[in-house]
Design goal:
InterPro entries: Homeodomain-like_sf, HTH_AraC. The protein is 61% helix and 5% strand. By secondary structure, it is mainly alpha-helical.
Length: 179
């Protein structure tokens, strides 16, 4: 579950099944009380119809938590983290970063750093398309050290300069789920 719409779908399906819950966050739902296997199967089937998946495997859950932590950090948090990404994830998830990085790469086929950069560039694309901020403001907002650093990383990841990207009207952004 990587977006607010996904949270709404999960809440709706939990309500339909009469399951009580205390919280539905990106990637997690805290259900009150025991849930029968049959109810879990119904929930899983309903979530799959919506393009979501119920997870019970501990490694898959941890990878999903890494994914959600990065998405939250890039797309929903304004302030810059005070430590580097590896320390941030280790502290947030209470695991050694090497373990997290190896597990993530094994399951997703991409490094945590590359995944983080892809999301940063998607957010930059979004900000460019909205056309409310200039490139200097975007660089500052996205915590780049300079416009040059942002431009170089953008070009490396997309093959286009930010200004060329802005000129392409038919170039669509990817949804968060597809990044």
């Amino acid at each position: 579950m990587v977006c607010i719409r996904c949270q709404m779908v999960v809440k709706s399906e939990l309500d339909k099944l009469g399951l009580e819950y205390t919280d539905v966050k990106i990637g997690e739902a805290c259900i009150i009380g025991p849930v029968s296997d049959e109810t879990l199967k119904k929930l899983d089937a309903a979530l799959r119809k919506a393009g979501l998946q119920l997870m019970s495997n501990k490694k898959s859950i941890l990878v999903e938590k890494i994914t959600n932590a990065i998405i939250e950090l890039v797309h929903y948090t304004e302030e810059q983290i005070k430590v580097n990404l590896s320390d941030y994830l280790s502290e947030k998830l209470c695991y050694d970063y090497t373990y997290l990085a190896n597990l993530f790469s094994e399951v997703k086929g991409i490094t945590i750093e590359k995944f983080y950069l892809k999301h940063k560039i998607e957010k930059v694309k979004e900000l460019i398309v909205y056309d409310e901020l200039n490139l200097s403001e975007i660089a500052y907002k996205m915590h780049y050290s300079s416009v040059a650093h942002l431009s170089n990383q953008f070009k490396k990841m997309t093959g286009l300069t930010p200004s060329h990207f802005k000129k392409l009207k038919n170039k669509r952004r990817d949804t968060l789920e597809n990044v």
